[in-house]
Amino acid sequence: MGRKRKPARRAWRRYLLAAMVLAGLSGAAWYWWDLQYFAPDEATFPEQGVAVSEREGLVGFQSVRALGGSFAYIEASSGAAGQDARFGRNLAAARQAGLKVGALHHFDPCAGADAQSANFVTMVPRDASLLPPAISLEETADRCAEKVSDAAVESELLTFINQVEMHAGKPVILKLSEDFEDRYGIATRIERDLWLVRDRFLPRYAQRPWLLWSANGARVTEAAEEPLEWVVVQS
Q1: Reported confidence tier of residue 235, pLDDT bands at 50, 70, 90
Q2: Residue 145: is its pLDDT beyond 70?
Q3: Which three-class secondary structure state does DSSP give residue 149?
Q4: How far from 189 is each of 121, 147, 152, 192, 208, CA to CA, in Å?
Q5: What is the mean pLDDT of residues 192-211?
Q6: Please, where are the H alpha helices in 84-131?
Q7: Do 167 and 126 contact (CB within 8 A), yes or no?
């Protein structure tokens, strides 16, 4: 009798294993689908918007507004020489759609503050109606051709912040990646509003409250052919 049960037991184990694999694949597929369209609950985060650049191509800002967006941060410049080709058009189109707009600069730890601020002010008008400018801090100095100390990165960043704030007439917002924060500890060293990044789950790596959260870095919407970075404000 015992020998006859073994094939049945093996078949049952194979069935159970197949069911577990199928459940895992189904769960992964659901999570992937859900993440594509995820946006935080508007009851908790009533103020929501997007961050866009030329990489997303033509963005329908009226559609962004229909989705509940009330603002757009638009990439303007990067480092000492990078300039977003769609900045002016995106700025005008977002305003025409009734969105509040702000400019974003990608900080390059390998480049000096003076060259970067000159690049930024060339692109971004001095306009009191703009939202506070945002500085994206993503890359560390590890990739620089010449060694740049952590102290030098912080010093140049502080200089850049001061220069941009003089131009804008308002404090900047620091958009911190987790890697940048782990390396330099900027959140606790520079007192500015924070913009943190983490898909779907609340970010906690800054060790202090944040103002903006990129809750979905690639939200699929009818507003653009490419996924959009969806951002919310903590009230």
Answers
A1: confident
A2: yes
A3: coil
A4: 25, 22, 14, 9, 11
A5: 97
A6: 87-96, 113-123
A7: yes
How many CA atoms within 13 Å lie on the side-chain side of 84?
26
Nearest Cα neighbor of 95 from 56, 129, 66, 134 is 129
Q: How far is residue 16's CA from residue 223's CA, in Å, rounded to a whole number?
A: 43
Two structure tokens written together for 76: 């303007």
Q: Strand runs (DSSP E) across 36-150, as ranges? A: 48-52, 69-78, 82-83, 100-106, 134-137
- The DSSP bridge partners found for residue 100 are 71
- As to burial, measured by CB atoms within 10 angstroms (0-12 exposed, 13-18 middle, 19+ buried), residue 164 is buried
Helices (H) and strands (E) in the chain, counts: 7, 9
Q: pLDDT tens, 107-122? A: 999 999 999 999 999 9
36: left (phi over 0), alpha (psi -120 to 50) or beta: alpha
> How far apart are alpha carbons 149 and 146 in whole angstroms?
10
pTM assigned to the model:
0.86
Short-list 25, 97, 47, 27, CA closest to 215: 47
The pLDDT value recorded for residue 21 is 40
Instruction: Give the C-alpha separation, 47 to 100, whole Å.
Output: 11
**Separation between Cα atoms, residue 31 and residue 4, nearest integer Å:** 42
Instruction: Render pLDDT for 119-132 as a digit per residue (tens, 0 to 9).
Output: 999 999 999 999 99
- For the chain, the C-alpha Rg in angstroms (whole number) is 23
